[in-house]
Amino acid sequence: MYPYTILVALFAFLEFLQPVSAGTKCYNQGLWGNYGTDIDKMDGVAIICKYMAGFYVGWEKKTTCFQIRKDFKWDFTIRNLNDYTKQISAELCEWRMSKLNNRCGYGGQKGDYYWHYWTDPNYGNCIGSPTMPPLPKKGDEMEPDTSITSVPVIEALNAEEEGENDGFQYAAGNETEQGN
Known about the structure:
Number of strands: 9
Number of helices: 3
Helix content: 10-25%
Pfam family, one: GBD_Y3
Signal peptide: 1-22
Organism: Xylaria arbuscula
Protein name: Glycan binding protein Y3-like domain-containing protein
Domain Glycan binding protein Y3-like: 48-126
Radius of gyration: 17 Å
Structural class: alpha+beta
Shape: globular
C-alpha cells in the first residue's frame, strides 16, 4: 500500500473511533427527550435521516421535525461546513444523530470536519404535520392509524431563523448561508 493510502485509512479509522463527547455541546435545560423510549420505538432517526440524506451545497443547512406525539416533537438540523457541495449518507446521519441523542437527553449539537448536527426535543407540533397519537403503553394492542399517511410526519420547519436563545438555530427547510 502507498503511504498516502495508509494515512487516509488511518484518519478515517480514527474519526470513526472519535467519542461523541469530543466537541459535543449538550443542552442542560429544556425538554428531556427520552430518546431510548420515544423516538427510538418509531425509528424516527432512521426516517428523518433518509429524508435529510443527499447533497448539500457549501454551508447549506437543512432542518426537519419528527412528531413524537401530540405537542411533543423532535427537531433535527444538519449543516455542510464546507465551501463546496458534499453528500451525506442516511447511514452516517443516523449514526451521528443517534449518538448525539443518546448522549444528550435535552438535545445538543456536535460538529466534525465536514458536518454540524443539532437535535432538540421540544413541546409543540411540527408545522404542517398531522398530530401523532400518544405512544402505546406496554401490553397495549397496536392498531394501525388510518388517519395518518405513511410519511408526512417529516416536514421542514417553516419558522424563520431566530437568534441563539436556546443554542438551537431554527431555519426554514433548506438554507444556504456563507460563514459559520
